[in-house]
Design brief:
Blueprint: H1 4-34, E1 42-46, H2 56-66, E2 70-73, H3 80-96, E3 101-104, H4 107-113, E4 117-120, H5 127-134, E5 139-144, H6 147-156, E6 160-163, H7 180-190, E7 195-198, H8 206-211, E8 216-219, H9 221-224, H10 229-245
Parallel strand pairs: 1-2, 1-8, 2-3, 3-4, 4-5, 5-6, 6-7, 7-8
Length: about 250
């Protein structure tokens, strides 16, 4: 006969096993999402507002040479013909490097140049509708500032979420409130898709950002406005690789 204490112990072991299986499943889903080769770890956002020295395509070329594995084309102003020309040139650079280009905000632009996908803000085109239009294979990134927004993005069909600003940033005129590493960690635990940290990311902040659970980082001014974007990107790449090696 099994004594009550043995039975309780057996029940406890079973519950622990079940919890372990659930946690294991969660980790497996997260691991699978992070192994999705479409989502890079170093997202470089091209820009022609903070700097006018280099075109989007030139910034992309230098960033990719330095180790970027995703380029986000962001051009919020200007005539559509010029923006389309810039996007097409940048897409050509990314295609030659076999790296994805994601277009900020504009589904029409992404479709016109054959980009890998789009990145959508809270006030942009709805993620669910974008998924219906672009199909299951498109990369769709979503901007989030809270854990609940991260969860909503997952439910609506986002491939990854860009959470921020994690640190104080000067690249936006009216940035959202800083979320910090604690909220970043909560967000990463809340969803099985990659969370990309954005906002105030410098190469020396990469390690604590990845240790908090971020899959990667998105960088704008630290690379786009650098005197040497290729070298700047290489420093970020080295910081990411170094953090991953010792994780």
């Amino acid at each position: 006969m099994v004594s009550p204490s043995d039975g309780e112990q057996s029940s406890t072991n079973d519950e622990s096993a079940d919890e372990s299986n659930v946690e294991g499943d969660d980790r497996s889903r997260h691991h699978a999402a992070q192994k999705d080769g479409r989502v890079g770890r170093l997202h470089v956002i091209t820009d022609f507002k903070l700097q006018q020295q280099r075109s989007h395509a030139e910034l992309a070329r230098l960033a990719l040479r330095g180790g970027a594995d995703t380029i986000q084309f962001r051009q919020k102003h200007g005539g559509i013909r010029n923006v389309l020309s810039q996007a097409r040139a940048t897409q050509a650079v990314c295609r030659d490097a076999s790296m994805p280009m994601i277009v900020d905000d504009r589904l029409d632009l992404a479709q016109a140049v054959g980009a890998a996908g789009v990145h959508l803000g809270q006030e942009d085109f709805p993620i669910r509708e974008a998924r219906n239009l672009l199909g299951p294979d498109a990369i769709i990134g979503a901007t989030a500032n809270t854990v609940s927004q991260v969860q909503e993005a997952l439910e609506e069909g986002a491939t990854y979420v860009g959470l921020g600003p994690v640190f104080k940033t000067g690249s936006k005129r009216n940035p959202k409130s800083v979320v910090g590493l604690e909220t970043l960690a909560e967000a990463c635990d809340a969803v099985p898709i990659p969370v990309i940290a954005i906002g105030g990311i410098t190469h020396d902040r990469v390690r604590p950002t990845l240790e908090a659970g971020a899959y990667g980082v998105a960088v704008l001014s630290a690379i786009a406005t650098s005197k040497n974007p290729e070298r700047a990107a290489a420093r970020f790449r080295a910081a990411i690789d170094g953090a991953l090696r010792t994780a």
